[in-house]
C-alpha cells in the first residue's frame, strides 16, 4: 500500500464503509487467515471512534489437521486485543462449499445472539466481490446476482451480516498484519483449483496485470446495481444526471467518476461547477442542476 501508514488505510476504509451503527455490539467472524485477523484488529483500532463493542467468534470446521493451528492463532489475537472470544464447532454437514457456508452462518448467528451482538462482521474483500460477481455471471443471473456481496443484510431475525472491507484489496490486509506484527494462518485449500471459486480466482489473477483497475471497477458496478435495485436516493440522483446528459450528445459518454462527483454534490446540496469532460462542465446550485457550461 502507498504511504507510511498502510494500517491507517484499512482502518479508514472501515470507517468510510458506514456499515455499522453507533453503539452496536459486533461479532467479528475470525477464521485465523490474514483477512479476518486484519479485520478484527482494525475494528478494534476504530471501535472507540465508532462507539462499537467487539467480540470475536471462531468456527472450527475440524476438516483438516491445521484447523487447530487456526484456532490457536485466533486465541492469541483475542488475548492480545483483550476481547471476548467464542469458539464454536461446526455441526456435521455435507462437505460441499454451500452446505458448509450455510452451517457456518447459522452457528455465527447463534453465537451473536448468545453474546448479545446485533451484527456479524466478515472479512470479504474486493477480490471476493469480483469472484462473486463473475461466478453469478457464469451461472446466468439478473441484476440481483450482479449486485454481488451486500455490504449489510439480514442474517437471521435480530442479527445482520456486515462486510466493511469490500473496497479493500487482500494485499492491503496482509500488509496490515505485517505492520502490526499479527500472526495469521494460511488455508491450503485455497490452492485447490477443482473448487469453482479458486478456479475463478486464478483466472482473475491472470487478468489483473492487464486490467489493474479490475476489482475497483467490479466493486463500483456491483454497488451501482445494488443501489438501483434498492431504488435509494443516490441511485435516483445518478439516474437524473444520466437523463440530463442523454439530451446532449457530447455528454452521453461521461465516465462514472465524473457522474459520481456530480451526484455527491447534488446529494450534499452543494454549489459549484463540475468538470464532466474537457471543455464541458455541469453547474450545480444548492443541490440542483442548473445547466451545462461549454467552453468556447
How do you describe this structure in short?
By secondary structure, the chain is an alpha/beta fold. It has 11 helices and 9 strands.
N- and C-termini, Cα separation: 42 Å
Strand order of the largest sheet: 3-2-1-4-6-5
- What's the CATH class of the largest domain, please? Alpha Beta
Q: Which structural category fits the helices and strands?
A: alpha/beta
Explained architecture:
This protein is α/β, with parallel strands linked by helices and 296 residues long. A six-stranded mixed beta sheet has the order 3-2-1-4-6-5, with helices on both faces. The mean pLDDT is 89. Helix content is 49%, strand content 17%. It starts with 5 loop residues before the first helix and ends with a strand. It has helices at 6-17, 34-50, 67-81, 97-114, 126-139, 143-146, 170-179, 196-207, 214-230, 233-246, 256-267, and strands at residues 25-29, 53-60, 85-89, 119-121, 152-156, 159-162, 272-277, 280-285, 288-294. α1 crosses α7, α5 packs across α9 and α10 (233-246) packs across α11. The chain has two domains: 6-207, Rossmann fold (3-Layer(aba) Sandwich), CATH 3.40.50; 231-294, no CATH class. The radius of gyration is 21 Å and the shape is globular.
Q: What topology emerges from the helices and strands here?
A:
Elements: H1 6-17, E1 25-29, H2 34-50, E2 53-60, H3 67-81, E3 85-89, H4 97-114, E4 119-121, H5 126-139, H6 143-146, E5 152-156, E6 159-162, H7 170-179, H8 196-207, H9 214-230, H10 233-246, H11 256-267, E7 272-277, E8 280-285, E9 288-294
Parallel strand pairs: 1-2, 1-4, 2-3, 4-6
Antiparallel strand pairs: 5-6, 7-8, 8-9
